[in-house]
Amino acid sequence: MNRSIDSIIAKKVSHDVGILIFQYLNDIEPLIQQSLTAAKLKDFYGLKGKYSKGRFVCPFHHGADNPTSLSMNDNKRCFHCNACGKSGTYLEFIMYMQNISGRNSYNDAKIFAANHFTKLNLGFNSIADFEQKLKDKILERYRKTNSLRYTDYYDIWLLPERYFSSKEQSQVRQYQEEQQTKPSLEVSLSNSTNKPGFILESLDLEMTIRHLKAQNIIVNGITDYDEAVQVAKNSKLIKDFTKNADKLNSVDKLTDYMSKKYNIDIDTALKYGLIFFDKSSQHQLYYSDFFMLNNRVLFPVRDHETGIIVGYQCRRTDLSAPRHYKYLNITDYQDNLITNENGTTYRDFVPFKVGNFLFNLYELKGKCINTLWITEGIADAIKLSSMGYDAVSLGQANLTDYQIYLIDKYFGKDVTLNLFFDNDDNKIGQNKSIAAAYRLWQFGFRNIRIINTFKEMGKDITDCSVKLHDDDMLRLFINHWEKQAYSFAPASNEDLSALLKTGLYSESEILFIDPRDVERIISFGEMLNKYLDFKNMTYQQLKLLKKLCSFKEDEIKILLSLSTKDFLDVQNTNETEAAIKENSNTNIDSTQEEGNVEGSLINISKAQLFHLKKRFDIGIIKKIDNECSKKQIAAIVGNIIKNKDFDVWDYIHKKGSQHSSTSIAPSTTILDDGNFTPVYDDVSIPF
């Protein structure tokens, strides 16, 4: 077979299975569920028992003869055997009865139910059958046309034509064409300044989610969301904590911790199902050798559809404990023990992907909401909710596309979104809120506000709550922060393109930058481009430059007076900020005088002048320039940088001397301020 037709088949199958068939099955699932009843299952599989009571002989365990052991519930569309413990949904009942297994088992069960119970007559019996029939149709056309153009196979459909209107088919085809020409979403880490223009594209949320689900299915045979729900339903750990919450929850410790750490009362904590797991309860777990929950508070996250607990975010209460993560997202125990490279045997956990859910969404989804507060931390959402604000939590600093889909599904794009991320010193929370705002904007949300706390009060709402210890006062602050919020509007494509072309940032990084700072950073980046080659810089140097981009305009003016060498040798941002602060205190008259002196200096570079000003007045600096050799000037500056005690007159009165009484530490090449070429390359020179 021609390799090109192979690639067309692979692409077409990947698209139609990943995007069309699975979406179609999801869309008709309500119809399938309605058609599945205990009566139909009884007749189809010949179950024996008492239909009037929904009780039957279990078909799953050997020797079953009790006509009441298996119960079926049409309201919940689920079954359970009291004898063998087998349970699940009606679709899972079909999976077991038909012995359907493999990566597509759940969807194969939908197809079987659609054909035999819903009478839809799909024309295929399984995902594998769908793939084979699609392949046969493509090959049939290929034998007639010999075409190797992918577009010549767009109109091959196996799904009912009525499922796709002509408009929808056109959208799918347009999407396919875009995927062929669209550059990879992976952003190059190259810092070349020859960057193409940047365009902030509008995105189709529904198509994006379909594509995301398709990729999940191609890789794992099931979407991440469906897998999370299935794992949760079978989780031994979740069963432990839902059935034995009273025994496993140390309520006194929970009361004390939530009060001191978050200023959240115990009634609110218990309302949300919070659990303090003390290590003394270890023996009551299904696996008593599972130690990862000791001394943690468990925050349960519920599925927005069913309300069942799908996982726990587990917060360490003693952060001084060694080798323990602050947060763990857990959905179940690992059944097998693991031995690490040190020979230690332990039981690991099944991770919980928080990006598929929103904490507190299940409780809010039925409300008519005008303003939705979105927080990083779950405790922050609980605190806001307890005060009457409609809040959900991401459970992390990243807003995923699927979480955006959930916001749109339950509240619509007209809802006002208050992004209330952490206002931390490293600016991670605020940078993430900007990135989240950009993504929301691309998907059509226009009412986006970014909320900040007062840093003096704390980085998030619970920090502020603990400091105030007065909810009425806290509410006043929250309302003030909301009024002062930044109503997000993206930077223009022209400014984003200019920022990209500076070479300081990649495409993904520029979407973390506050649009209000973009013009200033562009100016700073363009200035640096005149003197620096970013392509040859180390990661640490680039990281430092990006930190300095956040300085204010008056601070940047001072930085511009430094030589490039001195600028890059500053490894400690705090030291730079201290230098800026010291220089900022200089009065206007002295600044003007210094500016005149700079133009008259012969041997002292601007970089050296920056350090000399820390120690000496203008008169002494002039004398150093007139009476010291360049090597002696370098030695003086080296002593200042190392904060050594020395007598400057030892250098001034020894013009032409090769050494002084002051010891000098080795350093690196000196750069001349004019053309940035080496003046000296002597390892004995400290600067």
From TrEMBL:
Region (Disordered): 170-189
Keyword Transcription regulation: no
Gene3D superfamilies tied to this protein: 3.40.1360.10, DNA primase, catalytic core, N-terminal domain, Zinc finger, CHC2-type domain
Alphabetic keyword roster: Metal-binding, Zinc, Zinc-finger
Biological processes, Gene Ontology terms: DNA replication, synthesis of primer
Pfam families per record: Zn_ribbon_DnaG
Any one GO MF annotation of this record: DNA binding
Residue intervals of the Zinc finger CHC2-type domain: 58-114
GO cellular component, one term: cytoplasm
Keyword Zinc-finger listed: yes
Protein name: DNA primase catalytic core domain-containing protein
